[in-house]
Amino acid sequence: MSSVSSSARTRARAPRGGGPISRPEGRSLWRRVAASAWTWRLVTLVIVCAAWQGYATLAGSLLIPSLTETVKALFDLLTGAEIYHAFLLSNQALALGFVISIVVGLPLGLVAARFGLAERIMDPYINILVVTPMAALIPILLLALGLGLPSRVVLVVVFAVPMVVVNSRAGVRQVDPALIEMARSFGASETEIWRRILLPGALPAVMTGIRLALGRAITGMVIVELLMVSVGIGNLILKFRGFFESGPLYATVILVVGEALILVNAVRWLERRVAPWAQVARLAE
Fold this sequence. Notes:
Elements: H1 2-17, H2 25-35, H3 37-59, H4 67-78, H5 82-114, H6 116-131, H7 138-145, H8 149-173, H9 177-185, H10 190-227, H11 232-242, H12 246-274, H13 276-284
Helix pairs in contact: 4-12, 5-6, 5-8, 5-10, 5-11, 6-8, 7-8, 8-10, 10-11, 10-12, 11-12, 12-13
């Protein structure tokens, strides 16, 4: 009788000591939500929007629209044709200049990293493009090329191409020289070294340079239209500013920022697709 009662007590105590502890599903869900980066992004967005609305309402300034006024102006712009025509004009220069930057900058950066003579020839000009304030070059380009599309395309190229060249050169240089020497010892040709070692090793840095160049290209597109050539998005911003239409002005800027975020994240997605080993290397570090 006592043995039966002791075994019953043992079975009754077993779940307390060694059995699995069930965790409430709600607590686990809340932990996952709190650990998500999107949760904090949304919280930050809500705080910024609330502060914007409150400050604009209290200030009552003509130059600072409230969030609701900006949203209404954004809806009015998206339902009209003017904003699409402006983005079409601006994105022509952006697309052409960005493609030319990649076509020109990528080979220059790879060649400069591999051959010392080419680097000595190009290095002063690349440094000039990196450190020179680009706004100072706008009047020169406009005097040389006029007020049409070519001048805007060239300015986008001037903004973007240094990022492509510098990052492509850095990508080739960060490849381990021991890999190149080992390939040569096995009789690999220069073409095989480029195809099997240099280009795969430099591709993550190249994609980073393309992403940075895209941001610089968008900056150049807007700056030239604001300062000298009043077309496209720059023309809209100047028009809304001149008539003190702060709601449409803020809405236009939000659309420009939205387009930039979409394009940059598209390049980031492409980077993960074409160079997945870069993500693995970052996790390993």
